[in-house]
Specification:
alpha+beta, Ribosomal Protein S5, domain 2, about 35% helix
Length: about 90
């Protein structure tokens, strides 16, 4: 999947997250979370899984997490990616 424009998904409410994606020359992921010390490695693993599943090799992905569960993380990333992809340009 090619990221051709900015895409956003999610909310800043408790147990949710905001995902921001935008085009970039390389792949960079930035995670901010209220539970980063306890679950940072699991959040990163879920992000990596979704990016691999969607064949994302370039782009800047930023997550601002407020304790979202893994299924919400996956859904929000996929939605932001779809909104930023060439198919929706």
């Amino acid at each position: 999947m090619e990221i051709v424009k900015k895409g956003v998904a999610g909310t800043m409410q408790s147990s949710d997250l905001m995902v921001f994606v935008e085009p970039a020359d390389s792949l960079k992921v930035e995670i901010e979370s209220t539970v980063i010390k306890q679950f940072g490695h699991l959040i990163q693993a879920k992000v990596d899984e979704v990016l691999v599943k969607n064949n994302v090799t370039r782009g800047f992905i930023r997550l601002t997490d407020r304790g979202a569960l893994d299924y919400a993380i996956e859904a929000r990333i996929e939605t932001a990616l779809q909104r930023a992809s060439a198919a929706r340009a």
